[in-house]
């Protein structure tokens, strides 16, 4: 089988969501508009969740209305936490992907989306049907996909079981999410080498949170095991505010791009625009940290 092309997702939503200082809507919109010029495959740009849960992203619909998508190849992804959010997101023709965090940890599922895993799986089935009707693609993130801090049961076999349930629902994109940065190269390797051949109709992604010292070994392990979808955030900013108090940063996009380019991957990134976006990210997040 030919190796699929690399799909690169930039995640400003993940970078912004934990910031206490509200970024004004026009500032957010201008930043996202700049990111749309770089050539990323996907932009995880906002979320349709309770404004009480994530106040920073309460203006996602307004931000979307301000974006000009006529000159970009980048497709938009919005995160949703329940069926109501999915219906809101699906009502926007500009959005291609709906992302839903399904947790391998019962505790985190309750903390993150206020429901049990069983309820969340029922939501996934309904969301997938909604996406099929509306011409969208559902991306399921397996949160706590590499372990959890709550003492909930965890093993690669549990991850495989979740994946089997998602594959049975015909979910076609599953991203393993290292919500708290506990993944190791050995675990990343074993998970992807087991799952990728076992579920040929599923495209697997890696949403890794890392420290500045561990990013290379993690992305290398995922890539060498056959993963071709990667999420990053410029500057490695952000993480999950629902998970732990100490934020382990996102995978820095500039590191991802350097690594993948070194593997000979054609990413379609406009280098000058990319450098400009790095500068804009540094300015934005310094001003609103």
UniProtKB/TrEMBL annotation:
GO biological process terms, semicolon-separated: ketone body biosynthetic process; L-leucine catabolic process
Domain Pyruvate carboxyltransferase: from-to ranges: 5-275
Signal peptide: none
Domain of life: Bacteria
Keyword GTP-binding: no
Gene3D superfamilies: Aldolase class I
One function term, GO molecular function aspect: hydroxymethylglutaryl-CoA lyase activity
Keywords assigned by UniProt, alphabetized: Lyase, Metal-binding
Membership in a protein family: Belongs to the HMG-CoA lyase family.
This protein's name: Hydroxymethylglutaryl-CoA lyase
Organism for this UniProt entry: Hymenobacter ginkgonis
